[in-house]
Amino acid sequence: MARAATTSDAFNAIAEPQRREILVLLRGGERPVTELARDLGMSQPQASKHLRVLREVGLVRVRGAGKQRLYDLDAHGLRPVHEWVGGFEQFWNESFGRLDEYVQELRQERRKGPQDDDQ
After folding, report:
1. Rounded to 5 degrees, what are φ and ψ at 4?
2. pLDDT score recorded for residue 80
3. Is 60 in contact with 51 (CB distance < 8 Å)?
4. How far is residue 113's CA from residue 20's CA, in Å, rounded to a whole number?
5. Hey, which bits of 1-96 come out as E strands?
6. What pTM was computed for the model?
7. Short-list 45, 56, 42, CA closest to 9
8. What are the angstrom distances between the C-alpha of 14 and each of 26, 80, 118?
9. Handedness of CA 46, 13, 26, 41 (dihedral sign)
10. Which of 70, 73, 81, 114 is 20 to 30 Å from the Cα of 62, by its Cα?
């Protein structure tokens, strides 16, 4: 029985570091499983297993080209992950804003120099 793709499936699929590495490699364009396996230092069956999971959740596409099967990134499948991460944008913006203020304060203190502290 085939599993239905859900938001949690994309999260579960990319929780595996080697699957994330596959997605990074596929950013450069479609590639056969043999190349992916070689670049990842894994066997072809291992790479195929990871590609099957990524394909089931809609993160990669596959097409036949002669005897090869070429895999390609389907970035639309990453939309739920992107939207979830985007929910933290305000947190990071505020954190970077506070960090920027702190750096500006340090710069001003350095410009004053140590002799100004004694006055």
Report:
1. -80, 140
2. 86
3. yes
4. 48
5. 31-32, 60-65, 68-73
6. 0.72
7. 56
8. 14, 12, 56
9. negative
10. 81
